[in-house]
Design goal:
The complex is a heterodimer. Chain A is an alpha/beta fold. Chain A is 42% helix and 18% strand. Chain A has 23 helices and 18 strands. In chain A, strand 17, helix 21 and strand 18 form a beta-alpha-beta unit. In chain A, helix 16 packs parallel to helix 19. Chain B has a five-stranded mixed sheet. In chain B, 37% of the residues lie in helices and 19% in strands. In chain B, helix 1 packs across helix 4 and helix 3 packs across helix 5. Chain B starts with 7 loop residues before the first strand and ends with a helix. The chains are: A alpha/beta, B alpha/beta. At the A-B interface, helix 8, strand 8 and helix 11 of A face helix 1 and strand 2 of B.
């Protein structure tokens, strides 16, 4: 699949192909819609890719790869960059040796996310250069460009994509692959040890790099003008370019692919060249704010278009200055827990016992919907345990004793362990009950492996984190594993006892996801067969 | 074909094969050399929620679809607004499930119905079905495709 033949690819797959052709030595990430397919496809086409427990770890592994003089790709959804923000900001200061490309896949309209967040702000906040593709071909080209920019300025690059770019399939014509770098280590104690004495000059170096890149931004072909009518000029980035071209094919366009630092002289020249200049962008008015702050007069979209995705109709309204209410589509069918899902049993018990449920992110968030309506909060990955503890600390005992934290297996490995440490360290007077819903996969995003499954991204056997052993080692007073059946009575009885005990209790409720169980059995059979497992190792390396 | 873009919206519920059907459609069109674009919303779809997939335009604007293919009866009204005036609705009641070798092939049967309206040669459809589905499902899906194509032709006449 590494040929240069024209192919039909999603934006995600185009990024993966570019990573392979661009000589990326290792791709790391944590699954999250709409970014998940990037690493899966990279592994499928012969690249090296692995899931990390969470995005922070994935980025830190990527930093190590880049410090070692190799090229690194790190993938995540928009909220993943919140988790990885700490290393992201600091690696901008240290710089890199090889290349480091961080993919942030934003989800305007929240097809499958807990919040709407425009991660272009992160490029500015962390002082990191950013590229924004509009379609699959650009996703391919700009991934390669991001690798080149990273190597040239020895800096991490943010590759910012959105759901439509990630999941739209379009033709891609690839280029000839480039040779990978030869990893090697050189000491740079002052450059990479961010103690204050080193970090102060590092920040100045970073700003100097940005100043150089701002000049480069003025001339790079990634930012280009499409001449058209002088009556209307459109400044645009990302998928909005496609919508705007369809609505106003005769307009003049300034298409921005390198969107931090912005080419302000080029933008000023374009603004002056047209009678009316409109900025078309999804999400926050990132471009419009920056352009206006530079003293240029441009139109931006009304606030109503800040919410959700843009589309052809909405861009038409922005250009027509049409503030009328948009037609509302009849509601679709909401998702629900699958028939036969093991989570049913657990949520039935929560409902029967009138629990106060601190929930978490994944399939089981569907427990908030009827028929159970048995989840009281769902904020961010791993939050269930600490929020449950906070509730226990302040609620009157009679209410506190009904509080349960519920978290999935993948989410627990992602960021639940520190919550357990908090529980052991600051136990509430009424104790606490944590339920890990162990369905042996990352179900919500399409059944990815994680450190608790004991299988790699490509489903080969590897080391395994065992939650019950971990819980005991961390000092949880009572740890129980409960194989879940179809009937909720047994689980409900155990939960009742746990709530009454006023101890710190960890319940591991275990049954494989009904959609993944067959595949899991196949992986395990293959992995227990030595010649097959060996062949598989070769095929994915 | 001429240069006028053709917009197709496929809609249904998670697990019905909306995305697979759109994969086959875009694969068939791509094999014919068309500038294919396929976009989908499938974040929560695995859990039975609504799924839509737009083929041949990055996002088909409301009221701009030339064809609307719907896999679930209760999703017809939800998505009807996608269709342009005079556009063609291909609804699940076109297919008699008893005539399908495998009832799960409704998605491909409806593609067969769609194919009666599009200028994509049957051989390319067959190649696309083969490319997108495992071999053991080829026969059932070819049968479903032929059944859908026949049903649509009967309606047109």
């Amino acid at each position: 699949m590494s040929s240069t033949e024209r192919q039909l690819l999603s934006g995600d797959n185009a990024i993966a192909l570019a990573a392979l052709h661009g000589g990326v030595a290792l791709g790391t990430g944590y699954p999250g819609t709409p970014s998940t397919e990037i690493l899966e496809y990279l592994a499928q086409i012969g690249g090296r890719a692995q899931w990390s427990p969470n995005e922070k770890v994935a980025l830190e592994v990527g930093i190590g790869v880049a410090y070692g003089g190799a090229r690194s790709l790190v993938t995540m959804k928009h909220v993943g960059l919140n988790v990885a923000a700490d290393p992201f900001f600091s690696v901008a200061h240290t710089g890199v040796v090889g290349a480091l490309v961080v993919v942030s896949a934003d989800d305007p309209g929240m097809a499958s996310s807990q919040n709407e967040q425009d991660n272009r702000r992160y490029a500015v906040a962390a002082a990191v250069p950013m590229v924004e593709p509009a379609d699959s071909q650009e996703a391919y080209e700009l991934t390669l460009a991001a690798i080149e920019i990273s190597e040239r300025w020895k800096i991490p690059v943010l590759l910012r994509v959105t759901t439509r770019v990630c999941h739209t399939q379009a033709p891609v014509t690839p280029r000839a692959p480039v040779a990978p770098l030869h990893p090697h280590f050189e000491h740079d104690l002052r450059g990479r040890n961010l103690i204050p004495a080193n970090a102060r000059p590092a920040h100045r170096r970073l700003r100097q790099k940005l100043a150089e890149m701002a000049e480069w931004s003025e001339t790079t072909p990634l930012n280009y003008v499409i001449p058209g009518s002088p009556k209307l000029g459109i400044i645009v980035s990302g998928v909005s370019f496609m919508h705007a071209r369809e609505v106003a094919p005769d307009a003049s366009f300034l298409k921005l692919g390198f969107t931090h630092p912005l080419p302000m002289r080029k933008i000023a020249e374009f603004v002056r060249s047209v009678e009316r200049c409109v900025v078309i962008e999804e999400g926050d008015p990132y471009l419009a704010d920056a352009i206006r702050a530079a003293g240029l007069s441009v139109e931006s979209k009304p606030e109503m278009f800040r919410f959700g995705e843009l589309n052809v109709d909405r861009v038409r309204r922005i250009l027509a200055r049409d503030p009328s209410a948009e037609p509302t589509r009849p509601p679709g069918k909401p998702p629900e827990l699958c028939d036969g899902c093991s989570h049913h049993v657990v949520f039935q018990a929560f409902k029967n016992l009138d629990c106060i449920v601190a929930g978490d992110i994944a399939c089981y968030a569907l427990g908030v919907l009827p028929p159970y309506s048995a989840m009281d909060c769902c904020v961010c990955m791993g939050s269930s345990i600490p929020i449950g503890l906070g509730l226990r600390h302040v609620l009157p005992p009679v209410e506190a004793k009904r509080v349960v934290s519920v978290i999935g297996d993948s989410t627990f490995v992602h960021s639940g362990m520190t919550g357990l440490a908090e529980m052991v360290y600051n136990p509430p007077p009424t104790g606490h009950v944590v339920v890990i819903l162990d369905n042996s996969t990352t179900a919500m995003t399409g059944h990815q492996e994680h450190p608790g499954t004991g299988r790699t991204l490509a489903h080969a056997q590897t080391g395994k984190v065992v939650y019950e052993e971990l819980g005991r080692a961390m000092g949880i007073e009572e740890v129980r594993v409960i194989p879940l059946g179809k009937d909720c009575a047994e689980f409900q009885q155990i939960l009742t006892e746990a709530l009454a005990s006023e101890k710190l209790v960890l319940l591991v409720a275990r049954r494989p996801c009904i959609l993944a169980a067959k595949h899991i059995r196949e992986y395990d059979a293959r992995n227990s067969c030595v010649p097959c497992a060996a062949a598989q190792e070769v095929s994915v390396s | 074909m001429n240069n006028k873009p053709v917009n197709v919206v496929l809609a249904g519920l998670g697990g019905q094969g909306v995305i697979k059907a759109s994969d086959i459609l875009s694969e068939a069109a791509f094999r014919c050399g068309f500038e294919v674009k396929k976009s989908e919303i499938h974040g929560m779809s695995q859990r039975g929620g609504s799924v839509t997939s737009d083929v041949l335009s990055p996002m088909v604007p409301p009221g701009a679809a030339d064809f609307l293919v719907v896999l679930a009866p209760d999703q017809v009204e939800v998505n009807r607004g996608q269709l342009r005036p005079g556009g063609v609705l291909i609804a699940p009641d076109l297919i008699d499930p008893a005539k399908l070798a495998n009832k799960k092939s409704l998605n491909v049967a409806l593609l067969g119905a769609l194919s009666a309206h599009l200028k994509i040669p049957e051989s390319q459809w067959q190649s696309a079905i083969h490319a997108c589905l495992p071999e053991k499902l080829h026969a059932a899906n070819e049968q479903a495709f032929a059944e859908g194509r026949r049903a649509a032709a009967a309606t047109k006449n």
